[in-house]
Amino acid sequence: MATFQVAVADPESGRTYQFEVDGQDANRFIGREIGDEVDGGAVGLDGYTVEITGGSDDAGRPMRGDVDGSDLKEVLLEGGAGFNPERDGERKRVTVRGKEVSESAAQLNVSIAERGDESVESLLGEGDDEDGGDDE
């Protein structure tokens, strides 16, 4: 059974909310790809729609939207998720995950695509927190 962390970004407020998702809610993400939209009820946002924007596996290898499947692949990168070049023209062969969500995912990044009737803070129960949430 799949279990992973989901980081939900709210583009309007600029805040990010962390959830651990397992069971039936996690199965809503399995088989989907980066860019696909999923019902927000999986992360406690009933009436909302969230878009998968990325993720990583338990070893920290990022998912890339330009790599098909869910398996590990070695790709030659010039930049983007998985490699940050230090000089112009630098390339590197890096192991990354494909764009399909599988049980090997440890973290998923999602963004709110369509809003529901209620506010995000009221649905997540963080509306009465003075300092704005879980600052570390």
Structural class category: mainly beta
Average pLDDT number: 86
Estimate the helix proportion, in percent. under 10%
Q: Tally the helices.
A: 2
List how many beta strands DSSP finds.
7
Largest sheet: 5 strands, mixed
Q: Give the strand content.
A: 35-45%
Give the topology, please.
Blueprint: E1 3-10, E2 15-22, H1 24-27, E3 37-39, E4 49-57, E5 72-77, E6 92-97, E7 105-114, H2 120-124
Parallel strand pairs: 1-7
Antiparallel strand pairs: 1-2, 3-4, 4-7, 5-6
Tell me what the structure shows.
24% of the residues are buried. The chain contains two helices and seven strands; from the N terminus they run ββαβββββα. The strands form two sheets. The chain has a five-stranded mixed β-sheet with strand order 2-1-7-4-3. Helices cover 7% and strands 37% of the residues. With 136 residues, the protein is mainly beta.
Summarize this structure briefly.
The protein is mainly beta and 136 residues long. The chain is 7% helix and 37% strand. The protein has 2 helices and 7 strands, in the order ββαβββββα.
Structural features:
two-stranded antiparallel sheet, 7 strands, 136 residues, mainly beta, 5-stranded mixed beta sheet
